[in-house]
Every structure is written in structure tokens, then in C-alpha cells.
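My hope is that you will study the protein record below before we discuss the fold together.
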Amino acid sequence: MRVRKFVLAISVVTILFGSIALSSVFGLWNTQSSKIPVKFKNGEFAGEYNPLDIRGSYTFENISSLFNISLNDLATAFAVPEDQPKAEFLCKYLEELYAESAEQGKEVGTHSVKVFVALYKGLPIDLDDDTYFPKSAEQILLNNAILNDEQITYIQSHLVEPIQVSEVNETNNNEQNNEEKVVNGKTTFKEIIAKGVEVEELEEIIKSKLADENQTIRDYCIANELQFSEVKSELEQLIKGE
């Protein structure tokens, strides 16, 4: 009886690892998440990648390759600072780059990239009122996309001024001298706690237990796919007692 159980166990292990080996050979086994968006299943665009599935972790190089869009067009449209590599720029970095616009209710982020790609390629997507683009995206779309009047009006009414590197540096300097702006990309949870915010209040905002007080809030948001601008705003309200 024990021999049979032993043989059975060996058989199960052999089948399991044999299946994984075969799957690896044929490219069916992948332990890492691949940056491949879903495709439209039906209709005119069946078989094409759906830009709505673009994630914040996608680089501009990923998007350029997947959707056959010029990398320069992407970088120019979203005014990627010259000191940052265009190919390695992540979609989710946009929300920090345009944090001030978000505070005014004009958010430029991953969803902006989704809509931009859809308009650029003539793919279907809903045009919502909360999504904005840098002004530099307007001319890129007008030059490369076939747009109807409604889409052109939408683009022109959803633009913000591009953020220049000098403006980003000036903003960072102002934050150091302005007590109201106490959260930036380098702020750690420990610094927020030192300003009087309770750990429980922090955990409610980040929707999880606080594991590392020395981690920057920006890095935490990126790792957990949270909107840095939203977390930043809530923390600043707590600190100011609003």
C-alpha cells in the first residue's frame, strides 16, 4: 500500500513538472506578468489591442511597439522632460509630473495615454470629462489622427499647459518653503507620521497596513497602483487639519 502511494506521488510530480517543461517550450508557461493588453474580440476592430487595457506600468516603448505609434510622438505629446529616457518612461509617472493640474481637477495620467492612443489609432473609447492632455498632444493628434468634429472639440477643451523641467524644479523649491505643500515625491511615511498623522489614518488612506515607514509615498503608490496625487491630497488635508 505504501509503495503504491509512493509511486503515485512520484507520478504526480513527474506529470506536473513535465507539463511545465512542455509549456515552457511552447511559450505557454509564464511566471512573469507580460505587458500585453487584451484585444477587441468582436466588431470592426476584432484582433487589435485595446488601449483601455494599458496599465500604469507600461513604458512608452511598450506602447510604441504594441500600437505602432512613434516613440517621439508619445514623448512630445506628453512633454516628457529631456532628462528622462523616453523609452523607459512609465505611464504612471505622468500623475506626478502633472500633480498641480490634478489639484485643479485636470488630471493627466495613465487614462490620458489610453485615450490618446485610441484617438491616434482611430480605436473606440469613451471620452470622459475627467481626462486631460498636455497642450503638446493636440498638434500630434491633429497631424496623425483622423478625427471628427466631436473629438477635436473634446481634445481642445481638455488641455493643460505642458510642464517644463524648469517649472518642475521651481515647484520643488517652492514646496520646501511652503508649509501647505508638505508631500512630494521624496516624502516618506515616517515624515508624515512626524507631522502628527496617526498610523491608522495613514492606513485608511493607503488602504493597507503600513509595512515600511521609511518608504516614500510615491514609491508605495507606484508599487500598489494608487494615484499619488489623490493620496498626496488626502494626506495634506490631514496635516492641515481640514
Residues 20 and 26 are 10 Å apart (CA to CA). The chain has two domains: 51-160, 179-239. Residues 2-25 form the longest helix (24 residues).
